[in-house]
Amino acid sequence: MANNSFQAAALQKDITPPLGTLINGEFQTRYANKIHDRLYAKSVVLKQSDTILMFVVVDICAMQQDFLDEVKADIHKATGIPQSHMLISSTHTHSAGAITELLMGHADLTYRKNLHRILVDLVIETLPNLREAKIAFGTVDAPEHVLCRRYKMAPEYKAFNPVTGGYDLVKTNPFGAEEHILERNSTPDTQLAYLGVKGLDDQWIALLANYSLHYVGDLERGTISADYFGCFAKRLEEVLSEGDNSFVAMMSNGTSGEINIWDFIDTGRYPTGSHRKSEFIGRGLSDKVLRDLQNLQWEEYPALEALYNELPVGIRKLSEQELENAKQMVIDTDYESITLNEDGYRRIYAREQVLLAEFPKQRTFYIQSFRIGTGIIGALGGEFFAETGLALKALAPQGKYFTVCLANDYVGYVPPQHEIALGGYETWRCRTSFLEESAEAKIRNVLLKQIEQHKNELV
User: Fold this and answer.
1) Residue 267's pLDDT band (boundaries 50, 70, 90)?
2) What is the pLDDT of residues 364-393, one digit of tens each?
3) In the chain, what are the domain boundaries?
4) Using CA atoms, how far apart are residues 83 and 368, in angstroms rounded to an integer?
5) Cα–Cα distance between 63 and 121 in angstroms, integer?
6) Angle, in degrees to the nearest 10, between helices 320-331 and 342-356
7) Do residues 45 and 54 make contact, with C-beta atoms less than 8 angstroms apart?
8) How far is residue 87 CA from its own chain's centroid?
9) The 3-state secondary structure of the chain, one letter per residue
10) Confidence (pLDDT) at 2
């Protein structure tokens, strides 16, 4: 340590749930009846003098603030790492154990308890592996897999809104209505950004990547899988591990709220069959990164800094009449035998209105960022649109910034206000899309100020 005070370590732990575990990520609960590939929680810890930054990426659909606050409190108690210096995020695979209730997908409380323990142990066991290290930020362009799933439709097409009972100006995932498509509604972030971490002996320790693609989901309903996030990591670990298991690769979810790979205009360009699309995308992305590694500029003495804000944000509330109408529909509904058609969606969202009415008037939203050498990583606890990520990258150091979403919380979708005005699935008021219309702008502005503060330290 005489020549370098910067250290790093990484570790991963298996979090694959047992068969029978509840799965969420769709409108209704699923049960695990097949395990296609293992799920992991992965950590990378960076230390410079007395400053420690902790990143954990988990193969799971969503983790909310109440769960993560308890996990962080136990990690802090065991390690002394400040909670403001911890980032714990979900990849957003829709084929993993459920620890929070989403729509009519219920939480598995046993799995939730087990995951809490594993995450705490993961960080505790990572710290003894700290060793002298260096870092580098890299980027590659991967436009081929990111498509806006919100479409402007021809006037004759009516995009039904199950919350208002009216019609939206855009349609998300217009299955069966392709002939009515006019154009996509937004521009994706095509950049795959990453942070590489090596020992001073040039052996790989970790690679934390970020890509703004929702998930793939090309498996049967009851199947457990890490989706393309896992395929990406597995390929990198196979190539860069050099015979040992100490290297950890992880893919985090970026600003992908309205971005997926279901192409309703140019169909048929992906392989079909179970998990083949995930493998194709994961391998393609990892190979781009592997080719880019020779371009990295390594930093052996990176300064570390964390900025953290708690922002009170309002909640979209419904009127008394809307609540009464929703309650009556819940009274008249047998949710054990609901059908996923237009009437069924109205009933599901009526339940959401009744449950949302119990929420407080405000939600505390965590906004976090880290300066690592000459680069910056932001963290937001929801599904933000590409517009948000692109605006943040425009201010940040070029090629040395990315936003980890579904981090430290999960409030569902946080669309820009003008997107809420257009409607569409991501904007429908419910427990996975409930922040006030101006929330995205307020949150974006706080993170922009953090980025500006970090940049001032770089000068």
Assistant:
1) confident
2) 999 999 999 999 999 999 999 999 999 999
3) 6-147+185-311+361-458, 318-356
4) 11
5) 17
6) 120
7) yes
8) 12
9) CCCCCEEEEEEEEECCCCCCCEECCCCECEECCEECCCCEEEEEEEEECCEEEEEEEECCCCCCHHHHHHHHHHHHHHHCCCHHHEEEEECCCCCCECCCCECEECCCHHHHHHHHHHHHHHHHHHHHHCEEEEEEEEEEECHHHCEECEEEECCCCCEECCCCCCEECEEECCCCCHHHEEEECCCCCCEEEEEEEEECCCCEEEEEEEECCCCCCCCCCCEECCHHHHHHHHHHHHHHCCCCCCCEEEEEECCCCCEECCCCCCCCCCCCCCCHHHHHHHHHHHHHHHHHHHHCCCECCCCEEEEEEEEEEEECCCCHHHHHHHHHHHHCCCHHHCCCCHHHHHHHHHHHHHHHCCCCCEEEEEEEEEEECCEEEEEECCEECHHHHHHHHHHCCCCCEEEEECECCCCEEECCHHHHHHCCHHHCCECCECECCCHHHHHHHHHHHHHHHHHHHHC
10) 44
Q: Note the pLDDT tens digit of each residue in 164-212.
A: 999 999 999 999 999 999 999 999 999 999 999 999 999 999 999 999 9
**Token pair for residue 122?**
């993961």
